[in-house]
Structures are given as structure tokens and as C-alpha cells.
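Provenance and format

Records in this collection were gathered into a single text stream. Each protein contributes a sequence line and a C-alpha cell line. The two records reproduced below are adjacent in the stream.
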Amino acid sequence: MNVTRDVVKDLLSLYLAGEASADTRVFVEEYLQRDPSLAREVEAARIDQPELPPTPPPDATAEKLALDRTRQLLKTRTSTMAVAVVFTLIPLAFVLEDSSITFLLIRDAPIIGLTWWATAVVMWICHLYIRRRLRVSGL
């Protein structure tokens, strides 16, 4: 296989950054020995290239922490929705009496029914807030 100069030029960015594999480095260095003009360009690029300190890899615990937070938010989103649905529907429990519907909790204890609905409203607000936070990450 005949490798052209353009292919080697494409590999130079990896080579100069020190990110090329051992085989690629050997290949580029052999090609530079056969092409002195390209070797001069590479040396000029090395001189003009500022020496940057190596960047450390991100802390693995940060990724784990983000994953754990996301999992917790997903669990909380599910829990708040379940509680919100239950607290919304319980006051609507009914019986059929004499061909009419009677809502038990509203008839027998309207204050408790309203308290359940107020709790449901709070849970729905919490659920929507958590959904909004998760929407940023696309979940």
C-alpha cells in the first residue's frame, strides 16, 4: 500500500500531541526520514507549539456522585408522583346510593378531604420541580 503525504499530514496532529499509538509514531518517524521537507515542517511546528501541562483525568468520584444524585432524583420523581396520585384520588372515593354518587370523604370529613388535596398539590409541585431538574439532563 502506497501512503501519500496527505495521509501522514493527517496523522501529524496526533503525533505532535503525543496521542498517537506506538505503531503510528514509528510509521510517521520513518516517513519523516524519507521526506526531509515534511520533517522540517514538523520541527517548526514543535518549536512553535507551546508546552502545555498534561490535564489530569476527571475525578472518578465526581462521576459516581453525579450518577448517584441522578438515580436519587429519579426515585424521588417516581415516589412523588405515586403519592400525588394517591392523595388526589382518595378524596374521590365514592359509593352509589339510591342511583346517585356520594363521595365518602367529602361528605363525612370535608376538612380531611381538603387536607389530602392540599397535600396532593404540594406533591404535584415537587414532582414537576424534579421533572424540570431532570429535563436538563434529558431524562
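Adjacent record:
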Amino acid sequence: MTNETKTYLESTQSLFTKIATDNPQLEAAARVMARKIADGGLIHVIGPGGHSNIAVEEVLWRAGGLVPINSILDAGTNLIHGAKRSNYVERTVGYAKQVLDSYRVGREPGEVIIIVNAYGINPMTIDTVEEAKRRKMTSIAITTNSFADKLAPDHPSRHPSAKNLYQEADYWINCHVPYGDAVVEVEGVSQKTGPTATLCNVFTMNLLMIETIRQLSQMGIDPPVWMSANLPGGDEKNKRNEDTYASRIRHL
């Protein structure tokens, strides 16, 4: 094992430990999700920014994951349509409203939305949480404060209001992404490598899903959970959930 590999391994292990042990609102947020699912509702999930979409894809039709997850995967910020293009779109004020409208999100008070964006400062992110407030939704943020607390109010990636997701959401689950994202120094290379944001976002998201499933079980509910389609009986078991939710989850 090289020193660089060891650094990355130890850094990510440390971050995962911090996420798992330093998140006082995790159980409360999961409780809100469990109650909504118990009432027959969906949990909306959005990643307002390029790589944030990866954490949203992670919980769509995922083996071991909750079924009632409505992943919002708008083409505007999806990297497959252009990485720099997604950067332009996530900085477009007012764009989030149109996305939520197109997915028919927030039509009934009390809907739950998870907003995952490690930096938590761009216009689409802030517009999303503000729209959630206007629509009387409960918002759960997966983000960190490491960037939000350091970047100037007039930084070009910020929303004009200079608001921060971690302060605007109803619940904040800290993904603990370090300032700068990358954590590995390589001799002779000026820029650090070894990015952490996607790993931290996905790990945090799965902790939230696990805790929600645990709380549903404590409520006496056997929650709908996807089975790997690659296991014997997987297709048959999943089909029942697909038939139940296909009309409610756009990308299913």
C-alpha cells in the first residue's frame, strides 16, 4: 500500500466515523421519514448540482434500499448532458421551482424532501429549500458547513441571498466533507487528489435510509425494501413493489 493510498483510506474512514457519530439530528429526521412512509407517502430526494445527483441515483431502485423514494433526476444538472453545463444550470436562480413543479412535488402540505448537496450554497440548492418552505414541506439537508462558513457572500457559486442550506433546512445531516473536498497530497503535484464528497454524500444518505427502516420496524411495520434483482427470486419480489409504485415514482 502506498502512502497516498493509506492517506485516502484513513481519511475516508475518519470521515465515515465522524458522519456516523456526529449527527444529532439523524434519528429525528429518519422519524419524520418513517411516519410519512407509514402514512403511505413518498420521500422526495434531489441533488441540486452535478455530482450531487449520484447520491440521488443511489437510492433509486437500490438493493437494500427503501422503495417509496421519488428520486428527482433533472436533466439540467445531470453530468451526462455536460459537466460545465450542469455548473451553469445549478447557478441559475429560479430553476429549482420549475423542476419541483415538473415532478409535481409539494402539492400536499407535509411532504418530505431530502436535499443533498455537499457545498450547500448554490442557487438551485437554496431555491429548492426555500421552495420547500413555501410548499409547507419538511426539508432534510445532507450537506456540510465547511464551505458555507468560509466562502465569501459574493462568491460566484453562491445564491444571491448568500444563504446556506445547513441553516435553512428543517433537519441537517452533516456529511462532513472537508473544505476543498480532496484530501491526498502527491509529491510534485500542486492540486490535492482523492475527492470525498460523493463518498460522504452516499454514506450519509444510506445511514438515513437504514435509520428510517429501523424506526419503521420499531413501529411494527415491515417496510418495502428492494431486493437485488441478481438474486434468486429478486425479480419476482421486486415486481410487486414495481407494480405498486410505478405510477408514483417517475424514474421507476
